[in-house]
Amino acid sequence: MTQESTPSTALSPEAIAQLVKGHREFLSFLERRVESRAVAEDILQSAFTRGLERGAGVDDEKVVAWFYRVLRNAVIDHYRQRSTAERLTEAWAREFPDVQEPEAELRQEICQCVSSLLDTLKPEYRDALRIVDLQEGKLKDLAQQSGITPENAAVRVHRARAALRRRIEQACGTCSLHGCLDCSCEAAGGKECGG
């Protein structure tokens, strides 16, 4: 009886060890190319995740060079996304020149169900999002408070954001796809989204 082997989509343990060993150099590489260490850490965490998921077939001896290409592409994507966001903001300002909402009011307008959905996450995910996103803390703050490494903190925040995104999509349906500024969703109250 023969057993069919499925192709691996992951890097070998040796390749992963090389990437982990190069963490400091990768972070330094990114910090020189983006606006802050926090952005560099986020890009690096995402790149590690993508690399681990899609690195099959990369030769162990060439994994570092391959990963630098992944990082270069991630930096390009970062600036492309930022440029798009800036263009959208400029277009909004041209279309509605008299509208100037203070940041505090804008934050309050964002879909009210997010805060109630945050409480449905695992405690460590909820705390991670509160520290890093809501309190605008840093990954090292989360790491210190949770007793984990900054790398593990970055993974935790990434997973927490993904979990919250799934909860929002489940609770708000199309509102979550179109943005929450016009959301009539009251997921916490049991009503369906009208968005």
Automatic annotation (TrEMBL):
Pfam families hit by this protein: Sigma70_r2, Sigma70_r4_2
Domain (RNA polymerase sigma factor 70 region 4 type) ranges: 112-164
Domain called RNA polymerase sigma-70 region: residue spans: 23-83
SUPFAM superfamilies, sorted: Sigma2 domain of RNA polymerase sigma factors (SSF88946), Sigma3 and sigma4 domains of RNA polymerase sigma factors (SSF88659)
Sorted UniProt keywords: Sigma factor, Transcription, Transcription regulation
Alphabetized Gene3D superfamilies for the sequence: 1.10.1740.10, Winged helix-like DNA-binding domain superfamily/Winged helix DNA-binding domain
InterPro entries (alphabetical): RNA_pol_sigma-70-like, RNA_pol_sigma-70_dom, RNA_pol_sigma70_r2, RNA_pol_sigma70_r4_t2, RNA_pol_sigma_r2, RNA_pol_sigma_r3/r4-like, WH-like_DNA-bd_sf
Alphabetized NCBIfam families for the sequence: sigma70-ECF (TIGR02937)
Family named by the database record: Belongs to the sigma-70 factor family. ECF subfamily.
The protein, known as: RNA polymerase sigma factor
Protein source organism: Nitrospira defluvii
Lineage, top ranks: Bacteria, Pseudomonadati, Nitrospirota, Nitrospiria, Nitrospirales
